[in-house]
Write a structure and sequence with these properties.
The complex is a heterotrimer of chains A (276), B (318) and C (417).
Chain A lengths: L4 H29 L3 H4 L14 H9 L2 H32 L5 H11 L4 H15 L5 H25 L3 H9 L4 H12 L1 H17 L2 H6 L8 H6 L9 H33 L4
Helix pairs in contact in A: 1-13, 3-13, 4-7, 4-10, 7-10, 7-13, 8-9, 10-13
Chain B lengths: L11 H4 L2 H6 L1 H5 L1 H27 L2 E4 L2 E7 L3 H8 L3 H31 L5 H8 L1 H4 L2 H11 L6 H8 L16 H25 L4 H9 L4 H30 L2 H6 L11 H10 L4 H34 L1
Antiparallel strand pairs in B: 1-2
Helix pairs in contact in B: 4-16, 5-16, 6-11, 6-13, 11-13, 12-13, 13-16, 15-16
Chain C lengths: L1 H20 L17 E7 L7 H15 L3 E7 L5 H10 L6 E3 L2 H9 L19 H4 L3 E2 L2 E2 L1 E14 L10 H11 L5 E4 L7 H14 L15 H15 L9 H9 L3 E7 L1 H9 L5 E4 L8 E10 L6 H12 L1 H11 L12 H6 L2 H8 L3 E3 L9 H16 L5 H17 L1
Parallel strand pairs in C: 1-2, 1-3, 7-8, 10-11
Antiparallel strand pairs in C: 3-10, 4-5, 6-8, 6-9, 6-10
The chains are: A mainly alpha (276), B mainly alpha (318), C alpha/beta (417).
Chain lengths: 276, 318, 417
């Protein structure tokens, strides 16, 4: 039955179509960046990239602050990633393993904060951040971004810890491990894939974030790629090709990061997501 | 990251005193609080306090020009929001956007997960590539989507024309009837891979032997999906529905950069409305009121979603 | 001042939270200045983000930095779309750039909200040969809050390879645009999408002013007055004539213009230099708008000092440097077909090389700021209402008259409520 050739063909076709749709826009970004003005505004579609125009990337890299934008985005994303995991692991553990007064409120609070849109809190957060001296600073953006991604990461990690048999912990406790050691030595290694999944989500969140970055940062040396790329949309006459080249350079690091982490992500979701 | 350098020594005296230890105040009663505290304090500082500030704003006349100058106006902002001629449309757009995003993203995600679940050559590559839209930043997606949907040179219009479905004037994002569908497709494109990955993970929990046994017994694929697969992935579907709901309600960049809520308010979700009121019209008080109303709407949608999902489950398992 | 108190409380709580989280605070350094070093001033302007004029403007700022060693002006390019949001959020919270090049409506509001430093005591305006018309808008409630950075009028620009003589009446414009629309070329282009609301509003002003209309008479709104509706109907006629690339953003159609794909465009004086910078072989001509009344929109951009800046005296020093004749001339050369704060004379060589400059220069006298006359404070709200209603008329959902009747009603509610 499973060797049914029709079923196999249908699946192959289905997979190919789905893959085509998933990848096409990025491919199109690439093609557009390597299209001459003549073809861009011509009557026919140019379906293949004109590789002789690859210089547009070098040109964009040199003239458009792209390297600095990407570096800032990387710092923000990595910082958001580390801080979210650092905060989410303990709270996930507390929610999974202990029963304590206020546990329900903590879980509900996490859930509710996940519903807040960034745009709602921009102005009050700006005032706090100014008091903290965190305006025009990358750490400021890390702190803001973490607040919005922490709840989901915490839920994933809670789910993952739920999936670890308590017996392992009991044994460790009997051996005299303290709670923190139990967490770091017994649980953390076992939930590593879920930590990776959470890390990917947090990384993307920091890498993509736009609203805070556009409001809290006006010093060009601190601007991340989201703001840099978006700044091209508007009144200026930036050639579409440059726009696409820069957008693609902004997209690729996130894609590469995902491809590196993806094995763990699937495994991590298995452990964390299902029981959530 | 939390790093710990304490060395654990296997003191034999505690070995049999585990029960006692757990009841001691330091070892156990305060432990969960210590673990939860950093995240809770963090969220109180960076979410709860600003939210309270925002709640206060919503009862005042406050301009972005003078955020410290708050004139108490009671419910005036709320009345103005709810009484506005466009409020009905904004809520409707929000709900349509959320519902279609959730159904679309979870549906396509489940479909692709089922496709990718079996054994076949190149499965690893296919799984990796399928997730790419999730990794693409919203700002970049908005850019390429806008270009692909361009009326004159967009590849989508040329494709539609080629198959005889040409849109008048090629206007998609500029047309009140087509802008929202276009944005929905873009959003679902960006969201479905996440659902797919999570669902794929959940499918690993489906006992393959049972499925095969069911198929051997002559059960159709639908029946075997319903009886064997669905019960296993059901909690995941629930979770995804919840997550997609919340994320869709919050979604901002994609819509803002593609249409700014237009044309004629047809893509104006509550978050877009909140943002344009606060940062284009500089009316922080009213923006805050929209935000608060938005939170209530979100809660209603989430609770309704849970309810519908429960009912659907009862239908399916019947 | 509850705000401050809460902020402080939260700052402390935040510090505790961060300590608990073990967050070291990141790697980047702030803008700390050591003693003896020059005072650093942040200069915020949209122009700094532009491809052609941005770098030139930065070089001009560098000339100031090189001219002395006490003050260092740092360019702070903020994109057009988010400029008001970014700058106002910061200024409202008592921080932000020291020097800001505003658009006129944000400027008026910021001045009225005491966010800007009054300049009368710091700079003696009578010492400079200021251009009176635009300069009058730098004075709000009797006090001077800014000096014009650049002022530009709108004018019709056309591609000489596609059109031999520019149209002088609306009918000619329509006919020329129709004739030019073929083989993938569009006769005209302008903004007509909600995604470009501020830009679309700028375009609408040309039609309204060009038909003798005004959105307000100084005391009450006149959104549905006959001349306004007439102007907007002219705009709609061009839209309905299918002579424009509908849906194309300004960035796209300006690129198309440079590629000989768009024949006519009514745009501001910054655009020709951008286009010629990108496309040196473009044959660009300019002419006054072909509308019955010789009036068109103009972009006024005052340079102001942030009231919260700790370095107001230094910022004033920079403005004085800017107003020196030699630096005014240089600034004008950078900005293109625009005028600056004071009267300047372009060299004959410059005018011979770029005849379009004279067209734009002459039109500054009849350019009117893109404000809702009498309702500057509510301009953003009213702009949004107008754009929404005009768009619905373009979509055929109602006539332009009905759209503006509705806009008048909605806007009246906004200004009275």
């Amino acid at each position: 039955m499973r060797k049914n050739p029709i079923g196999t063909t249908a699946r192959v076709v289905g997979v190919l179509v789905a893959l085509g749709l998933a990848v096409f826009p990025l491919y199109w970004m690439f093609v557009t960046s390597l299209t001459s003005d003549h073809n861009l505004f011509g009557n026919h579609v140019q379906l293949l990239p004109d590789l002789s125009r690859i210089g547009v990337y070098a040109h964009a890299l040199v003239s458009q602050d792209v390297v600095r934008w990407l570096r800032n985005s990387l710092i923000i994303a990595a910082g958001t990633c580390l801080l979210s995991i650092g905060l989410a692991v303990p709270v996930g553990y507390a929610l999974s393993r202990f029963s304590f007064r206020g546990k329900g409120s903590v879980a509900l609070g996490l859930f509710l904060t996940q519903m807040l849109p960034e745009a709602l809190l921009v102005v009050p957060l700006f005032a706090f951040f100014r008091t903290l001296g965190l305006i025009d600073s990358l750490p400021g953006l890390i702190l803001a971004d973490t607040a919005f991604v922490l709840p989901i990461v915490a839920f994933i990690l809670k789910g993952a810890i739920d999936g670890i048999p308590r017996e392992l912990e009991e044994a460790a406790r009997v051996d005299g491990c303290r709670p923190l050691d139990v967490l770091t030595r017994i649980n953390l290694p076992l939930i590593a894939p879920s930590v990776a999944a959470g890390a990917v989500i947090a990384f993307f969140s920091g890498w993509n974030e736009y609203v805070f970055a556009v409001t809290f940062v006006s010093d060009p040396s601190k601007q991340p790629a989201s703001v840099g790329v978006a700044s091209f949309i508007g009144e200026l006459s930036t050639p579409t090709q440059t726009l696409m080249a820069v957008a693609l350079m902004y997209t690729l690091p996130a894609v590469v990061f995902y491809l590196i982490a993806q094995r763990h992500v699937v495994a991590g979701m298995t452990a964390g997501g299902v029981k959530g | 990251m939390v790093t710990v350098s304490t060395r654990v020594d296997g003191d034999p005296s505690t070995r049999h005193g585990a029960e006692k230890r757990r009841k001691s105040p330091l070892g156990s009663r305060w432990t969960p609080y210590l673990f939860a505290a950093p995240a809770v304090i963090y969220l109180v500082v960076f979410q709860a306090f600003p939210l309270i500030q925002e709640l206060r704003f919503s009862f005042t006349r406050t301009s972005l020009y003078t955020p410290n100058d708050n004139v108490w106006v009671g419910l005036a902002n709320y009345l103005s929001v709810i009484g506005s001629s466009t409020f009905h449309q904004t809520v409707q757009v929000t709900i349509v956007y959320v519902v279609v995003c959730v159904v679309g993203a979870v549906g396509v995600g489940l479909g692709t997960a089922l496709l990718l679940n079996g054994e076949f050559r190149g499965r690893g590559v296919a799984r990796a590539l399928m997730a790419i839209p999730w990794a693409a930043p919203a700002v970049a997606v908005a850019l390429i989507a806008t270009w692909m949907l361009n009326a004159q040179y967009g590849v989508v219009n040329r494709l539609l024309a080629a198959v005889g479905l040409a849109v008048p004037g090629g206007l998609i994002l500029e047309s009140p009837g087509r802008a929202l569908p276009a944005i929905l497709v873009t959003t679902i494109w960006e969201l479905f891979p996440f659902c797919s990955v999570v669902m794929l993970a959940a499918l690993q929990g489906v006992p393959q032997e049972v499925r095969e046994a069911a198929t051997m017994d002559g059960a159709g694929p639908w029946w075997s999906f319903r009886v064997v697969t669905w019960p296993v992935i059901r909690p995941t579907v629930d979770l995804l529905v919840l997550l997609m709901t919340i994320w869709s309600i919050r979604r901002f960049e994609l819509i803002w950069l593609m249409t700014q809520g237009g044309p004629v308010g047809t893509t104006n979700t509550l978050v877009i409305d909140l943002y344009s009121t606060g940062f284009q019209l500089f009316d922080l008080g009213k923006a805050a009121a929209i935000g608060m109303v938005g939170l209530v709407v979100s809660l209603v949608v989430v609770i309704a979603g849970r309810f519908v999902s429960r009912r659907a489950e009862q239908e399916v398992s019947r | 001042m509850k705000w401050t108190k809460t902020s402080t409380a939260i700052a402390i709580a935040g510090a505790v939270g961060m300590a608990l989280a073990g967050c070291s605070g990141g790697s980047s350094t702030g803008g700390s200045s050591t003693s003896g070093a020059p005072v650093t001033l942040r200069f915020a302007a949209v122009t700094l983000t532009e491809a052609g004029r941005g770098p030139a403007l930065k070089a001009w700022l560098q000339e100031f930095n090189d001219s002395q060693n006490k003050i260092k002006v740092v360019p702070d390019g903020i994109p057009f779309a988010t400029f008001a949001q970014t700058v106002l959020t910061q200024m409202g919270a008592g921080s932000g750039p020291d020097l800001i090049r505003f658009d006129i409506s944000t400027f008026e509001q910021a001045a009225a909200s005491n966010l800007l430093a009054p300049l009368d005591s710091m700079i003696d305006a009578s010492k400079y040969d200021l251009i009176k018309g635009p300069d009058s808008y730098n004075i709000v409630n009797g006090k001077r809050y800014g000096f014009s950075f650049d002022t530009t009028s709108y004018a019709l620009i056309y591609n000489k390879d596609l059109i031999s003589t520019p149209p002088t009446t609306f009918d000619e414009l329509l006919a020329t645009a129709k004739a030019a629309t073929k083989n993938g070329v569009y006769g005209m282009a302008f903004r007509q999408t909600a995604a470009e609301e501020p830009g679309m509003m700028q375009d609408l002003f040309n039609y309204v002013y060009g038909y003798g209309g005004d959105f307000g008479d100084g005391h009450k709104l006149t959104l549905n007055s006959p001349k306004v509706v007439q102007g907007l109907e002219a705009y709609q006629k061009l839209y309905d004539a299918n002579v424009i690339p509908k849906g194309a953003s300004a960035a796209t159609y300006r690129q198309m213009f440079g590629q000989n794909k768009v024949a006519i465009n009514i745009d501001n004086g910054g655009v020709p230099s951008i286009l010629l910078g990108e496309n040196p072989n473009l044959h660009l001509g300019a002419a006054p708008d072909p509308f019955p009344v010789k009036a068109q929109g103009g972009i006024l951009t005052p340079l102001a000092i942030n009231a919260a800046s700790p370095h107001q005296a230094e910022a004033a020093t920079f403005i004085k440097w800017m107003l020196e004749p030699a630096n005014q001339v240089k600034l004008q050369q950078i900005m293109g077909a625009e005028s600056v704060a004071t009267h300047t004379t372009r060299s004959a060589a410059e005018l011979a090389k770029a005849p379009y400059l004279k067209v734009f220069d002459d039109l500054v006298a009849t350019a009117k700021p893109q404000l809702i006359n009498g309702f500057a404070a509510k301009t953003p709200d009213i702009d949004k209402i107008i754009v929404d209603q005009v768009l619905s008329a373009l979509q055929g959902q109602q006539t332009m008259q009905a759209a503006m009747d509705k806009a008048q009603q909605l806007a009246t509610a906004v200004v009275s409520g």
